[in-house]
Amino acid sequence: MIKLTIPGEPVSASRPRVTGRGFAFIAEPYRSYKKMAHQVIKKQYSAEPMQGTLHVQIKFYRSVQKRVSKVERLRRLSGVHRPTMKPDIDNLFKAVTDACTGVVWKDDNQIVSTKSEKFYSEEPRVEIYVEEL
């Protein structure tokens, strides 16, 4: 099993937008995050892309909002309260798997089993665990 870490706030994948003239584009925050994550992953994983079927577990750690009370902050950091607001976990997962494609695995269709979780943390980041089956 390999473990990779992407530092910073997780960003969700956005859908391509189409202009009135028919041009499709991807929103800038997602495009920048995907590029940064791809580079970080390349530095951490230098082997050839995996070929077989994969189990991928991803843990998303978000920072606690500044407007919450000290008691609520402690609840969130201890895991009593977990993130339930946007971004959706499936869009977060898509952003990370897109960044890993071509580096960790050839294509994300190799992923046959997944587990994703959202947490609060003082250190926002994404932890990726990949296991060949």
From TrEMBL:
GO biological process: DNA recombination; DNA repair
GO molecular function: magnesium ion binding
Transmembrane portions of the chain: none
A Pfam family annotated for this UniProt entry: RusA
Name of the protein described by the UniProt record: RusA family crossover junction endodeoxyribonuclease
Organism of provenance: Pediococcus pentosaceus
